[in-house]
Write a structure and sequence with these properties.
The chain is mostly helical and 180 residues long. It has one domain (47-179). It is 64% helix and 7% strand. The protein is built from 6 helices and 2 strands; from the N terminus they run H-H-E-E-H-H-H-H. The protein has helices at residues 2-29, 47-68, 96-110, 127-133, 135-151, 153-179, and strands at residues 76-81, 90-95. A two-stranded antiparallel ribbon has the order 1-2. Helix 2 (47-68) runs antiparallel to helix 6, helix 3 (96-110) crosses helix 4 and helix 5 packs across helix 6. The longest helix is centred in the first third of the chain and has 28 residues, at 2-29. The relative contact order is 0.11. The mean pLDDT is 82.
Length: 180
């Protein structure tokens, strides 16, 4: 009987001992808010990310615009070019009326003018000269674009996305320049 009382006493004390031990362990594991180490991670996307997004949005807009326009001279043509003195190719886009003006001006420059020039080729057209030549076509193309934007909500949405991506790129570029 004595052993039974001792066993019951020991078994009865076990829950109290475990409760006390768990309370002690729990109080030791709780950290005070001042003791918590906080790590802030600040990420930044590279400028190339925003440039790539802008180019993709721009090309998608041109594709949709070309599909909707019925005037051949207003369509946008893109091609790969290497600037003079560089081996780095990039995609550039021009309206067809500007490409036609460049081709025409280049042909005119390649024709010898008279005997006194002795076959010397005239200077090739400059981008500023071509822009001056096509200012009337550009005005008509802008009016055509505005008409398409009012008639097609999908094109307008794509255009607004293009403007937003341009703003994001410009902001990222400005932030990068300010951090330097």
């Amino acid at each position: 009987m004595n052993n039974a009382v001792t066993l019951a006493t020991r078994l009865g004390l076990i829950p109290f001992i475990l409760l006390g031990f768990s309370t002690f362990v729990h109080s030791q594991s709780e950290e005070k808010p001042d003791d918590i180490e906080v790590v802030d991670v600040v990420g930044q996307r590279p400028l190339s990310y925003y440039r790539k997004q802008l180019v993709e949005t721009e090309l998608a807009f041109y594709d949709m615009y070309n599909a909707l326009t019925d005037k051949k001279e207003f369509k946008i043509r893109c091609r790969i070019e290497k600037p003079s003195g560089s081996h780095i190719a990039r995609k550039v886009c021009y309206p067809q009326y500007e490409l036609s003006a460049i081709a025409y001006e280049t042909q005119i420059a390649m024709i010898p003018k008279a005997q006194d020039t002795r076959g010397i080729i005239e200077p090739l057209p400059t981008s500023a000269g071509v822009k001056e030549l096509v200012k009337n076509e550009k005005r008509a193309a802008t009016e055509h674009l505005l008409k398409l934007l009012t008639e097609n909500p999908e094109l307008l949405e794509q255009y607004q996305e293009l403007i937003a991506d341009m703003a994001k790129f410009k902001q990222a570029k400005n932030e990068l320049q300010q951090s330097r």
